[in-house]
């Protein structure tokens, strides 16, 4: 039983982490590192603290209540769950179009086939995961294997880039500049929108709920942030190593140029593998989690959950193949995902103190205070981003 639980907890952690590590994750980390240099370490540090505070609160309440986020929200305020579901599904769909595009780009780098052909092949593979009988276990294993592959290959590129680690450590705690827009974008890209719920809802499906599961669930939530943050730090150092040598990144594809400049043609092929792995795991995570937000609204949706996930993947792929990659929409959704977090976390903190939702469970006071601080900080930073950062995109 312990081995089974360990496998479920690890699977949930990797599902959440690989959902976060997508094409947007790679691009954002590269672009912000190029702009902020070693000071981007401070942004990563602050985002990790916020990520842990948000995710541990959310996963604990989901596990204790045994309910998915939208049902908890409806219990807090009737109708709120439907609003949360709409926001998450819309963001998940927009992100998934970008994820499919990233999968197509990865196959293009690796095999020279067109991005659209690569996207279609990747779509078929993602669908195959949900066609098999043990879809949940297949999804867990898929996320774990590709998660390890991404991290290992990026470590190799980081080493070849020879980053100034000492400077990165110093600037992480004493930055030259503090970029609010970067913090909101990073938090939104790690625990915003559907991402933080990927692992929490996976635990519900696996039946790992109740007060007794809280210590394990808390550890799993921290592992998930740890995995995503490790990838972020490794990529940050790789980019920093390249730009510190005075090399210029290709604005058309910043992450690809980092891998190529650091490790030559081998590095470029490694980028193809990392991009494809990041994209396809995010396709799976986004589709599974987005659909999990609507499946409880009717018995019909619940019975046909698997086919809804497949339809979600097909729709995302079709939009990309017909329209192409909506870059501006993806950037906007990445930032707006950070605005969904204070809403979702705020709902969870209210739910944590309602006996009809959590029974006799007592949520730690320090976690509630930590969560409230994050809600206030992310709300303020999100409003600041809307009024200052996003308008810059349209100039």
Describe the structure using short key phrases.
Amino acid/polyamine transporter I, 395 residues, NRAMP_fam, cadmium ion transmembrane transporter activity, mainly alpha, globular
Written as H for each helix and E for each strand, in order along the chain, the element string is: HHHHHHHHHHHHHHHHH
Structural category is mainly alpha
The helix fraction, in percent, is over 70%
Q: Radius of gyration, Cα only, in angstroms?
A: 20 Å
Count of structural domains: 1
Record field, number of beta strands: 0
Percent in strands: under 5%
Unreliable stretches (pLDDT < 50, length at least 5) are none
Mean residue pLDDT: 86
Largest sheet: none
Oligomer: single chain
Head-to-tail CA distance between termini: 57 Å
Reading off the top of the CATH hierarchy, the class is best stated as: Mainly Alpha
H/I helix tally: 17
CATH topology term? Amino acid/polyamine transporter I
CATH superfamily: Amino acid/polyamine transporter I
Dominant shape: globular
CATH architecture: Up-down Bundle
């Amino acid at each position: 039983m312990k081995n089974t639980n360990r496998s479920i907890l690890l699977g949930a952690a990797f599902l959440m982490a690989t959902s976060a590590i997508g094409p947007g994750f790679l691009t954002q980390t590269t672009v912000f590192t190029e702009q902020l240099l070693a000071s981007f370490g401070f942004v990563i540090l602050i985002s990790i603290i916020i990520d842990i505070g948000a995710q541990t609160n959310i996963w604990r309440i989901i596990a204790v209540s045994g309910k998915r986020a939208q049902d908890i929200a409806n219990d807090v305020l009737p109708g709120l769950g439907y609003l949360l579901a709409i926001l998450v599904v819309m963001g998940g769909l927009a992100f998934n179009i970008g994820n499919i595009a990233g999968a197509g780009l990865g196959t293009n780098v690796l095999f020279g086939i067109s991005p659209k052909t690569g996207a279609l092949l990747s779509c078929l593979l993602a669908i195959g995961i949900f066609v098999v009988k043990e879809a949940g276990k297949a999804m867990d294993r898929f996320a774990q294997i590709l998660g390890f592959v991404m991290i290992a290959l990026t470590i190799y590129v980081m080493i070849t880039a020879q980053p100034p680690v000492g400077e990165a450590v110093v600037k992480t705690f004493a930055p030259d500049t503090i970029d609010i827009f970067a913090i909101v974008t990073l938090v939104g890209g790690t625990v915003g929108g559907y991402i933080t719920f990927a692992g929490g809802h996976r635990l519900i499906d696996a039946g790992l709920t109740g007060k007794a599961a809280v210590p394990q669930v808390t550890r799993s939530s921290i592992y998930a942030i740890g995995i995503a943050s490790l990838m972020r730090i490794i990529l940050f150092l790789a980019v920093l190593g390249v730009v510190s040598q005075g090399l210029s990144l290709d604005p058309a594809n910043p992450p690809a140029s980092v891998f190529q400049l650091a490790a030559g043609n081998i590095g470029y092929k490694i980028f193809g593998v990392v991009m494809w792995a990041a994209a396809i795991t995010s396709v799976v995570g986004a589709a599974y989690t987005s659909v999990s937000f609507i499946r409880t609204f009717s018995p019909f949706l619940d019975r046909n959950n698997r086919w809804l996930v497949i339809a979600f993947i097909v729709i995302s792929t079709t939009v990309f193949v017909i329209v192409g990659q909506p870059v501006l929409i993806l950037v906007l959704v990445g930032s707006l995902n950070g605005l969904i977090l204070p809403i979702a976390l705020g709902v969870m903190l209210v739910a944590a103190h309602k006996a009809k939702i959590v029974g006799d469970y007592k949520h730690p006071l320090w976690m509630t205070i930590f969560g409230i601080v994050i809600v206030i900080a992310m709300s303020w930073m999100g409003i600041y981003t809307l009024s200052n950062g996003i308008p810059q995109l349209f100039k």
